[in-house]
Recover the amino acids of this structure.
């Protein structure tokens, strides 16, 4: 395949779908991973890419899926770790299950995928890894699990960047702010407006706003950028 391969986890909807759309428009062959096999197939078809049903919390399944992608599509040039969930609840009421679910997907998931993609990138001495964290990594009421996991993603990013720089592999993180997704659209109108009022630019962000920053970090223009954290939030400070 002549097109470089961009793997986007959680790429079926929301921010992941916006990232995948931008990367497809930039002439990447986009490979989408998500849980729903039918939805993944539809999204991949609409973007002219490929789709696989993969649970990023399953270490063995991720190993197998990476092998399949590289055998069927080609070497993964860009990895975007976007898959994530939230189970918001005040700390004193949060269950162990709610904690574990978020940490497994949002922090262990990126490790699992990187663990199996990185050795291949090291052999090729080339690669771009972009991890999607969140503005909430600095702490946010009702998001102890989510904030902890997203802070962990930043630590993982900075460590991997140092380890992989000599192999011409860059690793960066993006922290989206308040982005227009199915999840944010389900918020009560009053809560939605409270968040909107915190944004100096006066508008909610789009998944494509995040996607364009991903595309920059994946491009030759960002060849000397690694270990960095870029906020995409219209100036919002939580």
């Amino acid at each position: 395949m002549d097109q470089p391969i961009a793997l986007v986890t959680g790429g079926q909807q929301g921010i992941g779908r916006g990232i995948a759309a931008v990367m497809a428009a930039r002439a990447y062959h986009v490979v989408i991973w998500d849980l729903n096999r039918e939805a993944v197939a539809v999204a991949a078809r609409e973007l002219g890419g490929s789709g696989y049903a993969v649970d990023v919390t399953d270490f063995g399944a991720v190993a197998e899926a990476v092998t399949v992608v590289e055998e069927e599509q080609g070497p993964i040039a860009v990895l975007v770790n976007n898959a994530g969930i939230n189970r918001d609840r005040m700390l004193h009421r949060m269950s162990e299950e709610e904690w574990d679910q978020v940490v497994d997907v949002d922090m262990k998931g990126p490790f699992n995928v990187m663990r199996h993609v990185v050795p291949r990138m090291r052999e090729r001495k080339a690669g771009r890894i972009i991890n999607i964290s969140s503005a909430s990594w600095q702490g946010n009421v009702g998001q102890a699990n989510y904030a902890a996991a997203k802070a962990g993603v930043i630590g993982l990013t900075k460590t991997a960047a140092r380890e992989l720089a000599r192999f011409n592999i860059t690793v960066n993180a993006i922290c989206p702010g308040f982005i227009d997704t199915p999840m944010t659209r389900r918020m009560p109108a009053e809560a939605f407006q409270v968040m909107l009022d915190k944004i100096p630019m006066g508008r909610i962000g789009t998944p494509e706003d995040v996607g364009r920053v991903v595309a920059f970090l994946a491009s030759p223009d960002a060849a000397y950028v690694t270990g960095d954290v870029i906020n995409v939030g219209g100036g919002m400070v939580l």
About this structure: The radius of gyration is 17 Å.
